[in-house]
Amino acid sequence: MSFSQRKQDVLNKEDKSSIGGWDTPIVSLCEKINSLDNYYTTSSCSGRIALVKDQTQREKGMFGFVSHELVNFEDFMLKVRELGENFKYKQEPPILHVACRTLEEAENLLKKAQLSGFKRSGVITLSGNIIVELISTEKMEFPLIKEGMMLVEGEFLRIVIQKSNENLEKGWKKIENLEKNIN
Q: What is the pLDDT of residues 34-51, one digit of tens each?
């Protein structure tokens, strides 16, 4: 199957993400990448703050809370108080997976991504498709609830939410920079 056919097939597939579409801060970048002949996105996330069941296997319903937007501390704490079991706090950076027509095109995209602030980026597969993973570095993760008990105090979480919101905004700026740097 040709690159163009694979691109068409992927872009016409039903969205299977947990939110059912692109995160608002990354829509424009994905549309720009997908408008270019030599690239298409296979997955993307603009960054998120989440409470995730602390377990080894992924399963449906494992998220107690997910936001791809800035988080209000008071609203977050209301959600935390509803949770039991074992949960971890995660703040994750923007990430994109992009199929590239050639290795040269992948290298070109990687250079632009790194100049835009996506420092932890690279080619993740060469078999069949050439897939580049573009990922930023702003990340936090720690256990939050163990056997239904909070492991940290409210003031610590207030600082964590503030820093996480700052990290999301940094990631969104990198998304904007990459969009400007892509021709």
A: 999 999 999 999 999 999
Question: Average pLDDT, stretch 120-148?
Answer: 92
pLDDT of residue 17: 58
How many angstroms separate the first and last alpha carbons of the chain? 26
CATH of the domain at 172: 3.30.1960.10
In whole angstroms, give the CA distance from residue 87 to residue 150. Answer: 9
| Model pLDDT for residues 69-104, shown as the tens digit of each residue | 999 999 999 999 888 789 999 999 999 999 999 999
**Interaxial angle between packed helices 103-115 and 154-181, expressed in degrees from 0 to 180 and rounded to the nearest 10:** 130
Q: Which range of residues forms the domain containing residue 40?
A: 3-181
Nearest-Å Rg of the Cα atoms of the chain is 18
Q: How many CA atoms lie within 13 A of 168 on its CB side?
A: 23
